[in-house]
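W.,

You were right to be curious about this one. When I first looked at the sequence I had no strong expectations either way, so I just let the prediction run and decided to look at it fresh. Below is the sequence, 233 residues in total, followed by the output.
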Amino acid sequence: MTFTILGRDAATGRLGGAAATSDLAVGARVLWARAGLGVAATQHRTDPRLGPAILERLGLDETPQQAVNAVAAGTVHREWRQLAAIDAGGASGSFSGSLLWPESGSAVGTDCLAIGNMLAGSGVVSAMCAGFTAATERGDDLGDRLLAALAAGQAAGGETGTTGLRSAALLIVDREAFPWADLRVDDDGDPLGALQALWTRWRPLAAGFVSRAIDPDFDGARPAGQRPTSTTT
């Protein structure tokens, strides 16, 4: 009951993913990323241990498909799991166990990979890749591409069931060990709309949050040593 898009921006090197589900707090369990390496997803009877395990294998120079296959092979309950990864070069890989509730599947596009389970139809994941590609062709930021993919998946039918979406998340890494963006809507009647609004507010501030972390004496035009306007972030 989750659909997820993973992608990269070939121009900036940023990597990221976005996910939505009818369950609670999808951002705490599904998406994992490491700057300059890759982004991974683990879902359906979600085991959060598997995302970091995929990234560890990418760090050993395995391809995304090799990493996903190896983690799946070493997982006792693999048939309940759905895994995916994309690396810094744009290569991707996925695994869907035999016990996933239908409809489930994956689709690959240029610099993106979509996976989902308990979907309204097989066209959901392909629509997500198409949404990502269209946003890329418009020159959109990676965050906008990922959110466009989620919106396209929902427009194509999204999940089955009557409860509706409940949570959504966006994770992007750039050059640092911490995320460029890690935004989560944990429980909301319109998580995609809430996540889009949160991203719209976050995007113009993201670079400033990074610069404060790297060099707290620098805050735009503020002279060194002058008290910052915000002491909380």
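Here's what jumped out at me. The domain at 2-214 is CATH 3.60.20.10 (Glutamine Phosphoribosylpyrophosphate, subunit 1, domain 1). And, maybe more interesting for your project: The chain has a mean pLDDT of 93.

Coffee later to discuss?

I.
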